[in-house]
Amino acid sequence: MQALDGAGLTASTQRAVDALAANGWDAGRVAEAERAEAEGVLRVLECLHTQPGSLDAEATAALVAATLARVEASDCDMGFADPLDEDALESLIANELDLRRVPSALRERAEEQLGVLRTLGEGGERDTAGREQLVKSTLGRVALTAAQPVVRTVRHEGGWRVGPRTFRLTDLVGMAAMLLVGTSVLVPVFAGLREQARHAACVSNLGQVAGAFGKYGGDNRDALPMAFSAGPAARWWSVGVPGQSNSQHYYKLYTDNYTELENLACPGNQTGCFETERPGTFDFRCITEVSFSFRSMFADHRPTLSQVAGLPVFGDRSPVVPVAMRGMRINPFANSANHGGRGQNLLLGNGAAVWVTGPAVSTAGGNLDNIWLPRPVERAMGQMLGIAEMDPLRGTERPTSMFDVFLNP
């Protein structure tokens, strides 16, 4: 590669990067005139996947300082020259790196950007230790490569010849700065943006479901959706079994045309049902497709929306049910997996969506109610605090009153 100006790329290097992106990051498919430059780009990118060099602490600190100084001194524009590239990246983020969901007009640009992210580490999140290791590895490779001559093909009048060229340390530090910014700063930020997009999409879907509950209630005397009258032997976690699962009740919002099927999915559940329609169905196919939990309709007294206006009736999927189905002890204070165990979105009977960081919610009289458990199980637990594990649910538990919040599939 030619010398870098600041932290930017020369025109020939930029052409090589563009050619790589267009050819699936395979230098062998790049035109011969740009292949040597493309191979040089890939060699630099490979710095991210090597073991650390044998640098002492002083040398490492010096290289870190040089890299940061290079970034700070650079006045290059880190934005996109073409606004469509920015639109493509935003669409890629909003659609969780799923190219199929990116608008067709932006898909080709988004595919190139996804290729860059994968080259920098599969476009995923790295923990702090991993990022530190990456920094050390890259800087170590910079030091080793800077001391070695690099053989490259150079074009001259009358043809091509092979000749040596030594990378300057400043050239490599400039490139390393770009890589380190991308992997140590931008990738974690990118991951945070993805989670924000997932959370926003989840809240948006809950808003659509709230409207569906309101329409259903308006047509059915303020009632919550109900698909069948359950017998005593019904297991509410038997998703896909006629007349069994609790999810069949709120699936009725789709089958009766109160909402779209895609609104019954949370982007945080990677195995959720993201289809736009399933004609003739009555339930999800299996429990892994279930993104949300619904107030248990397996009860003697089923409240109206008005009666439970301030209580949760719907929310992110229960984390205890999949564990209980395997016969394992459950953690009654776990949070939904939809958002990485950080908390859950809940939809109240009055249509409001709230975010809570624990499953214990306040009910009438200031009492706490665990949204994943019926009241009898809570009483069997004894004290609400200090219990990390308990015997699993059986799938036949029932709420004891209309004010006993129990959300399940």
Description:
The chain has 409 residues and is α+β, with helices and mostly antiparallel strands. The protein has two domains: 11-194, no CATH class; 220-408, no CATH class. The protein has ten helices and nine strands. It has helices at residues 11-22, 32-45, 57-73, 83-94, 104-119, 128-146, 169-219, 247-255, 320-325, 375-381; strands at 149-156, 159-166, 292-295, 312-316, 344-348, 353-356, 360-362, 368-370, 407-408. Strands 6-5-4-3-9 form a five-stranded antiparallel beta sheet, with helices on one face. Strands 1-2 form a two-stranded antiparallel sheet. Strands 7-8 form a two-stranded antiparallel sheet. Strand 5 (344-348) and strand 6 (353-356) form a beta hairpin. The longest helix is centred in the middle third of the chain and has 51 residues, at 169-219. The protein starts with 10 loop residues before the first helix and ends with a strand.
Keywords:
two-stranded antiparallel sheet; 10% strand; 409 residues; five-stranded antiparallel beta sheet; 2 domains; alpha+beta; elongated
Uncertain segments are 1-8, 47-55, 70-79, 120-126, 149-174
Main beta-sheet annotation: 5 strands, antiparallel
Average predicted confidence as pLDDT: 74
Pattern of helices and strands: HHHHHHEEHHEEHEEEEHE
Shape: elongated
Structural class of the helix and strand makeup? alpha+beta
Strand order in the sheet with the most strands: 6-5-4-3-9
Tally of strands: 9
Topology at a glance:
Blueprint: H1 11-22, H2 32-45, H3 57-73, H4 83-94, H5 104-119, H6 128-146, E1 149-156, E2 159-166, H7 169-219, H8 247-255, E3 292-295, E4 312-316, H9 320-325, E5 344-348, E6 353-356, E7 360-362, E8 368-370, H10 375-381, E9 407-408
Antiparallel strand pairs: 1-2, 3-4, 3-9, 4-5, 5-6, 7-8
